[in-house]
Amino acid sequence: MLLSLVLHMYSMRCVLPAAVLLGSAPTYVLAWGAWRLLSAFLPARLYQAVDDRLYCVYQSMVLFFFENYTGVQILLYGDLPKNKENIIYLANHQSTVDWIIADILAVRQNALGHVRYVLKDGLKWLPLYGCYFSQMYLVIFPEGTRYNPELTKVISASQTFAAQEGFAVLKHVLTPRIKATHVAFDSMKNYLDAIYDVTVAFEGTVDDKGQRKEAPSMAEFLCKECPKIHIHIDRIDKKDVPEEQAYMRRWLHERFEIKDKLLIEFYDSLDPERRNKFPGESVNSKLSLKKTLPSLLILSGLTAGMLMTEAGRKLYVRTWIYGTLIGCLWVSIKA
Predict the structure, then answer these.
(1) Which strand (E) or helix (H) includes residue 230?
(2) Using CA atoms, how far apart are residues 16 and 201, in angstroms rounded to an integer?
(3) How far, in Å, CA of 295 to CA of 290, rounded?
(4) Which of 123, 174, 185, 330 could hold 119 in an S-S bridge, CB 3.0 to 4.6 Å?
């Protein structure tokens, strides 16, 4: 009985974050929709500035749960500039938490409201957020799908393809795809400062036999199953990136070879002292509650206020229903 109670309480640790994050979605969408209408006749730059600020408020609340609530330790390696830049973020892909890592870095540069994502096509159908997220570009996961050491067929197919194309075979990442990276770079090169090549490892993802296991899911992460995240950043000036697709394809694979070597060191180093960390010095970066708690209080307070009245509750439900339908219709028209 006691064990069952403990297990039940443990599983409930992710319920509060999920309830708040999903529960405040209509509030955020209503605020964004209202601003969209009010700004119809205002300069586009003003609309974008407020839109970025609204997005920053919501993402700050997300980070409250993924950093402050979980207590995860963030260890940064390499060169993350203190000032925000116009960048493309390239990272290895292994978990549903990966998109949060981009936010973790962005908030430390005061650039959280500017983060945009290249998502899988199916994710644009997410209720309320799908049509909004589907317009965002900057964060790219070139592998196209998550690396899972248990999916040996996927890894084998990726390695076979690399060998056939004359590329080095990779162990801890999948063979990267060039299309999204090339399109993003070609479209944005006149505005870019750099590319951030980011390699991420979740501590605690090794089994009793020393073999790498699947990275934590979003629910597992919110249940505080990941004690540390190791993040290695290489800043690459845009002038050092080849523009032609064929050359960029080779360059991208070489960047993933570097990622693979970092992860081999992290997971497979023969020296136990060098395992569970990347080479070089790390910085333990803690996020202040000042950057996240106000957003949580604002959005949860507005949501609670809306739900306290009958009219507010009706508006809340209608936003879920009609917001989702209109979003799906908009995505279908754009497709």
Answers:
(1) strand 228-237
(2) 26
(3) 9
(4) 123
Each residue's pLDDT tens digit, 167-217: 999 999 999 999 989 988 898 888 889 999 999 999 999 888 888 999 999
- pTM for the structure as a whole: 0.88
Q: How far apart are CA 324 and CA 292, in angstroms?
A: 27
Scored b (16 or more CB within 10 A) or e, 186-206 reads: eeeeeebebbbbbbbbbbebe
Q: How far, CA to CA in Å, does 133 sit from each of 47, 121, 194, 261?
A: 17, 11, 23, 32
Strand, coil or helix: 88: strand
> CA-to-CA distance for 250 and 46, rounded, in angstroms?
40
Q: Where are the alpha helices (DSSP H) in the chain?
A: 2-11, 15-23, 25-38, 44-63, 98-107, 130-133, 152-164, 179-188, 218-222, 245-268, 293-307, 310-334
Instruction: Give the span between the Cα atoms of 130 and 123, in whole angstroms.
Output: 6
Q: What token pair was written down for 248? A: 């960029």
